Amino acid sequence: MSVTSVGSVSMKVSEVFKTIQGEGPWTGKPCVFVRLAGCNLTCPWCDSKYARHGLEVTVENVVKAIVGLGKNIPYVVITGGEPTIQEEELYELVKLLDDRGYYIALETNGTNNVNTSWFDLVVVSPKSNDVLDTWCAIARDDPSVVVKWVIDPDTAEEQLQYLATNNYHGVWLMPLGTSPMEVVEGIMVLTELVLEMELDAVVCNRLHIMVGCK
């Protein structure tokens, strides 16, 4: 990554915590999560509505919190809310983390532009077909980008048919659910459909829900 510092700033932070990554390509890795506050969407199924509010914290203090939580953990996941609504603050944080040799992942809903070169991994969770279309096109040429689409069991066939019709490859399919049983049932539905439709896709676990951690 090549990042230029924009100076010391403060950012709105909901929480900083240590856990395993439960979803996507870093599943199973111990990571420090930085959940930034605020979002530009109001999804009714959101599992982090509390992240709409947070405290003003200097970027330097966020980095200190990260170091304090995981001195030997090299992976940081910046999530939300929607991190890109604090663009200047986000990239200042990335600069400081990059200087310290961290691997950095961004989790975003994909509605705003992202300079993907600043991150080791960008995981986009689209909430509309238009955003899905945009980021599937980007992911074809940018190996740092992964599209992770939440699949509702009630609309699973329709959603997966959309992938097949548009010839989208490599999309991570994550079952909607907030309990281990819902996740297992969702994975079973997705597995059956992916095999039946012969999709080039990845059925994604939600490990943090399965093991009961944050």
Structure explained in plain terms:
The chain is an alpha/beta fold. 33% of the residues lie in helices and 24% in strands. It has a 9-stranded mixed β-sheet. α1 (59-69) crosses α2 (87-99) and α4 (156-166) packs parallel to α5 (180-197). The two termini are 29 Å apart. The relative contact order is 0.16. Residues 1-7 have low confidence and may be disordered.
Counted beta strands = 9
- The coarse overall form would be globular
Mind describing the biggest β-sheet? 9 strands, mixed
Q: Which structural class do you get from the secondary structure elements?
A: alpha/beta
Q: Identify the strand order in the major beta sheet.
A: 3-1-2-4-5-6-7-8-9
- Rounded Rg: 17 Å
Helix tally? 6
Quick check: average pLDDT?
Answer: 93
Instruction: Estimate the helix proportion, in percent.
Output: 25-40%
For the termini, the CA-CA separation is: 29 Å
| Regions with little confidence, pLDDT below 50 for 5+ residues | 1-7
SSE string: EEEHEHEEHEHEHEH
Task: Quote the beta fraction.
Answer: 15-25%
Task: Summarize this entry quickly.
The protein has 214 residues and is an alpha/beta fold.
List keywords for this structure.
214 residues; alpha/beta; nine-stranded mixed beta sheet; 33% helix; globular
Task: Please render the helix and strand layout as text.
Layout: E1 10-20, E2 30-36, E3 55-58, H1 59-69, E4 75-79, H2 87-99, E5 103-108, E6 121-124, H3 129-141, E7 145-151, H4 156-166, E8 171-175, H5 180-197, E9 201-203, H6 207-211
Parallel strand pairs: 2-4, 4-5, 5-6, 6-7, 7-8, 8-9
Antiparallel strand pairs: 1-2, 1-3
Helix pairs in contact: 1-2, 4-5
